[in-house]
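step: validate -> pass
step: tokenize input -> pass
step: predict -> running
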Amino acid sequence: MTLTRRALAVLASATALVLLAASPAAATTPPPNSMASMGDSITRGFNACGWYSDCTSRSFSTGDYSSVNSHYLRIRAVNPNIQGRNYNDAKTGAKSADMYGQAGSAVGQGVEYVTMLIGANDACTSSESTMTPVTTFRSNIDSALNRIKAGLPNARVAVISIPDIYRLWYVGKGSSSARTAWALFGICQSMLANPTSTSQTDVDRRARVRQRVVDYNTQLAQACTAYGANCDFDDNAVFNYPFVLSQVSTWDYFHPNTSGQAVLASVSYANGFGW
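step: predict -> pass
step: emit ->
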């Protein structure tokens, strides 16, 4: 078969595109040599290995516990240079307002990669009325991201969606142990108060609190887009993940246990930069 001049030109162009895609210049940017995590008790690994205490080794982001297989360990597997340069700047109890300070810590550490998972405590408050307003949440996120961008202009930032706390109510409401823990420790009462109630007042309250988390996640996505190419949002992968009760701590039925941290690591990393 004889190829026409036009067919040869098309074939040559296609071959060039294949070679370009396979070239280092077109490949994914290299994995980072250092990283920091920003967030709250989830990122601190709270209750993942000890009674009401942080367990940073089991953090989905910067931990080094093998069964969790954190972002740090996944990166270290392809880039040993990151060894020992994993900083957990999160704080148990943190809200979006605390991200500016944590961003300053990450900047001071001069890292090349930052994860941020924040917002659960902005929605999980003592009552619906004390949740952080959406506009305030967005302002707090923008301030933090702007500080990172100014101090670490080449760093990549993974913004992770807030887990669906309505899902937590759904999978836990049938457990007497979960209900007892939620009431005893006053956990996330904006969502988890009166967990077995089917009254319209409680049904509507839960729906509004869930919507607040949805709204926060929308703001996280938009803030990440505004940041630019060095920011990646997980497209609500964590929010949409159908976690089960066995993946949360049996001490508070709220925080991820070791299994939950492993799932969080897997889902968030798979929907990130893809090193």
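step: describe -> The mean pLDDT is 92.
step: cleanup -> pass
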